[in-house]
Amino acid sequence: MGEFELIRQYFLPLVRPHGSHSVVVGPGDDCAVQNIPFGSDLVFSIDTLVEGVHFPVDYCPDYLGWRALAVAASDLAAMGAEPACFTLALTLPEADESWLRDFALGLGRAADSFGLTLAGGDTTRGPLTLSLQVHGLVEEGRAIRRSGARAGDLIVVSGTLGDAGAALDYLGSCNPAADEQHVLERYHHPEPRLKLGVALRHLATAAIDVSDGLLADLNHILEASSVGASIERARVPVSQPLARLKDSAAIEYALHSGDDYELCATIPETRWAKAPESLKQQLTVIGVIESAIGLRLDGAEVVSGSEATGFDHFRRDA
Ligand code: ADP
Ligand code: MG
Fold it and tell me: What is the Cα–Cα distance from 256 to 216, expressed in whole angstroms?
């Protein structure tokens, strides 16, 4: 099967010709064309996944398709952007049709679920690597940045943390029990908090998606905003399956492990008080922004460069 036949058969079906995605020219020309409505900012981000680094060797292609787009779309959620479209640069060792079918299935389910249409891509031969660029739209000047946190803002997180990190301990399990299955599902099928991100646009002063670990990612907000924070261990939300699987260690997964793709945001107290109940139910307050630089966990300073850092590809011991 040639490159163009491969694209036609497996990827063109992921193009949604109608809808709110603003793509005027999709795959097939030299570039894709997206219309940017007057008064909107284009928000875009690219993520690369390398086999053996970002996902296990021989990872299920169906899960990979979902995961790749979810990881990319999560950055749109963090900025409060409405999802529009994506491009896919795919490097494959060979044109394995059953692999391609399953990959396109997972990718297509994710695209439909997140409201993203495929606008174009690039297909090459080599070690299995995927780069996905996602485009979103936001009201001009309204993208939620990392740099807006102010002393007194509450720190909130969505959902529960630590499940996806704990799942790495069970990836090889042939017959996972129910609790193990719960955390594995969080790893295989992360849900980018796109609707929540849009809802936070008029509420949050700063936001980030938790991809590397809560402490590491919150630290990015603190550095960008030139502020500090105090958070409480007991407030960090942990799922019941994770609590049962890991007992007292569950909280360590919630603080340090990544891959959950929940949102962490800062919200002024007055706005939080007036926020709709439906929104508050999706979030847990874990602490407060302070003017004193540094991150304090139950009053003790988290030493930056060790506890606060998540995964870093270029760190010597990585
Ligand atoms: P060019 O040589 O002009 O860069 P390509 O030959 O790389 O174009 O691609 C031809 C068309 O096929 C382009 O419109 C491109 O967006 C699309 N395309 C290539 N690979 C993919 C893919 N994996 N998914 C979707 N569209 C793709
Ligand atoms: Mg060209």
Answer: 7
CATH class of residue range 146-303: alpha beta
Q: How far is the C-alpha of 76 from the C-alpha of 144, rounded, in Å?
A: 10
Given a cut of 60, is residue 309 above it in pLDDT? no
What does the domain layout of the chain look like in residue ranges? 3-139, 146-303
3-139 fold = 60s Ribosomal Protein L30; Chain: A; (3.30.1330)
pLDDT, the chain, mean: 94
In this structure, the number of other CB atoms found within 10 A of the CB of residue 270 comes to 9
CA neighbours closer than 13 Å in the CB half-sphere of residue 228: 15
pTM above 0.85, yes or no: yes
* Strand-pair category, 117-125 with 82-92: parallel
Residue-wise pLDDT for 156-173, tens only, equals 999 999 999 999 999 988
Three-state DSSP class for residue 51:
strand
Ligand that lies nearest to the alpha carbon of residue 28, given by its number in the listed order: 1
Write the DSSP assignment of 132-150 as a string of letters: EEEEEEEETT-PPPGGG--
Residue whose entry in the numeric block shows the structure tokens 């990585």? 318
Residue 168 has which token pair? 């790495």
Of 215, 198, 79, 251, nearest in space to 148 by CA = 79
**Ligand 1 pocket residues where CB is under 6 Å:** 7, 11, 27-30, 88, 90, 118, 120-123
Q: Which ligand 1 atom lies nearest to the CA of residue 90? A: 23
Q: Are 263 and 222 in contact (CB under 8 A)?
A: no
Predicted local confidence at residue 318, as pLDDT: 37
Residue with more model confidence, 96 or 21: 96
Residue 223 has what pLDDT?
Answer: 97
The yes-or-no answer to whether 3-139 and 146-303 have a common fold is no
Mean pLDDT, range 260-265, rounded to an integer: 98
Which amino acid, residue 3? E
